[in-house]
Amino acid sequence: MSGEDLVKKLREAIINREGAEVVRGMAEEIAQAGIDAVEVIQNDLVPAVKEVGDRFERGEYFLTDMMLAAEALEAATEVLTHNLKEEGKRAFEDRIRTSKKVVIGVVKGDIHDIGKNMVALLLRANGYVVSDLGKDVSAKDFVDEAEKVGAHVIGLSALLTTTLPFQGDVINLLSEKGVRGKYKVIVGGGPTTSEWATSIGADGWAPDASNAVRLVAELLGGSIS
Amino acid sequence: MNYLEVTDRALHGPMCKERDYDLRIFSKKLADVVKEHAIKYDPMDPIPSDNTLADSVFQAAMDFYLQVGTFCLDTERIIKFTEGEIKDALKSSSPSVRFGEGRDAKILESRKPESTKPPWISVGSVGIAVSNEEIFSSLMRAYVEHVPLMDSLCTAALTTIDGRQIRLGDPSEVEGSIRTVMLSKEALRASGRPGLPIVNGVATAVSDKAAIAGSSLLGPGDALEIGSIAEMKIDFNLMNKITYAIATGKRIWAGMGPILGGYCGGPEGLTVAITAYNFHALLVQKATVQHPYPVHYRYVCNSSRQMIWAASLAYQAISRNTHVPVVGLCYAANGPGVEQGFYEAAATASTNAVSGVSMEIQGQAKGAHTDHLGPLEARLASEVALATTGMKRRDLNEIVKDLLKLYEGALEKPDPGKKYQECFDVRKITPEQSYLELYKKSAKTLEDIGIEV
Description:
The structure holds two protein chains of two kinds. Chain A is an alpha/beta fold.
C-alpha cells in the first residue's frame, strides 16, 4: 500500500470511529513507512476530527462518535510523535507552542459534564489545544492550569443555578491575582445567558457547543485556529 | 431490596473508569440492543401506535440495563442487578399513591396508552430559576389560582434570599432550601388549596444537607424529588438523600434526564434509555413515582419531532409492561407569551396523556432564563391533556403532525419570551391582557386542528 493510501485509510478510520487500537496499528505502519508525521497530523488527522465535528453539528453523529474520534486522534498522534526524529519533535512542539490554548472545566460543586465534553471536543476538532480539567473544579485549579499552560481562553461550564456563582469566583480570582487581562473568559451551561455573562464580567457566552467554538474564534481574532 | 445492599454494590461492584462506562458500556450496549431489536425511528409517526414496537423497546431496555447497571461516580463501580431482582422490584412497586392532604388529597395512578383515566397533572416551574422571594411567591400563587386542573405543585428554584445570591454548599443553600418550602406552603394556603401536594419542594437544594434541611418542612402528603445523573449514574450525594427519604417515609419523585445527542445517540437509543431508566429508578432511586425529563442536546426541550417520538414510545413501553406510576416532564424551547410555546405545550401534554403516563407542566425558554415562566401555557397544556385523554394514538399522531408545523421551525432559534412579571401583575396575580389574548388565540387554533379545549 502506498504512503498516500495508508494515510487515507487512517483518516477514514478516524471518521468511521474504528477505535483507538485499530488507529494505533495504522499509525505504526505510517511511522515505519517514514512519512512526515507532523504533516499527517496537521493535514489529515486534525481535518478528520473536524469532519467528525461537522457531522455532529449536522446531527449525523453524536457525542460518543466525537469522543471515539478524539481518542483515535490521541492514539495516532502518540504513535506518530513517538517515532519522530529530533527535528520533527521540535516542529511538533513548536506547533503546540504556537497553537491557541483553552482551559475548560465544570465549576466547583457541579458534576454535569456532558455539555462541557461537547465543547472540548469541538474545540479540539477545530485545532485548539484543550486542557480539560473535568468537573467539580475549584477556581484556584482553573487559574493555576491557565497559568501553567499559557492559556488564551478559560471556559467555565455550570448546569445548576446554585453553582453559577462559582463562574464569577474564577473571574474574581483572576482579578485578585492581577492576571485577568491575560485571558478571555467564556461561560456556558443550562441556566447561563449573555446577561449573566455580562454581570460577572465574562468576555463571552455561548448557548451551545457549536457557538462556543465560534465565540472562541471571534475572541482570538476572528478565525478558527 | 434493602438500600444498604444497593450501597454495598456501589462499594464492591465491578470497577470501571467513567469514560469506559460512557463510551464502551453505555453507548456501545445501547447501540447493540437498538440493532438487535430492530428499533427504527419514523419521522412520519411522531406518536407510534405499534404495540409490538413498544414491547420490543421494553425488552431492549431490560436487556440493556442488565448489561450496564448504574454507574456510581464516587466509587467508579457499577451497581448491577439480576433479572429476578428487576422483576421483583416491578412486581412489588405500587400502581397508585395518595398525595396531598384534606380536600386536596388525590390518588396518582399508573395508566395505559389511550387510557380514559385522566392523567395526574403536576404544574409549576419545574425547578427553573426565579430572581427573588416576591416573584417566587406570586408565581406559585399564579399557578394555583390560574390552573384549576392541577393536582400537585412543582416549585421554582430561588436564586437569592434577602438580596444575597444562593451558593451551593454554604448556609445560603440551606436557608434557601428551607425558605423555598415555607414560601410554597404559604402560597398554597393563601390561594385556598393548602393541602395540594408539593412534589419538588426543595428545588433550590442540590447538596444532600440542604435537601434534608428543606424537606424536613414537607408534609406527609408531599414528595421529595431526587434526580440522577446522565447517563445512568448516581453518586453518594444523591444516595444520601434517598437513604434519608426511605428512613423518614418520604415518597420519592425520581427524576431522570436522558439526553438526545449525548451518550444515548439518536431517537432510537433515547427511547430505550428512557425505558431503561425505569429499572434504575425503581432499584437505585427507590422511586415512588417515576419522573423522566428527556431533553434534546441542542434545543433543550422535548417538543421536537424526535423527542416526541422517543418519549411517546418509551412511555408506551413502560405503561404497557409495568404498573409503575410515571409523570413525564414537558419542556418547551420557547418562553412565556410566545405563540409557538403554547403549541409546544399542547404537543407534549397530549403526547403524555395518550401514551399512557401522567405529566408535569412545564419547563419553558430552555430553562435558561431567570423568571421566564408563564402559568397560562401550563393552563392550556392541562386543558389539552384532559381534552386528549382517551384519544387513539393514530388520531393524535395526525394532530401532533399539525402542531409540529406550527412550531418545529422555531426550535433552532426559539424566543425566550417574557418574564413572569411582564406577563402577570405580580401583586394582583392576574394576567396581562395581551397574554390572556394570546392564550385564547392559541386555544382557538387548537380547536381548529381538532383539540377541543
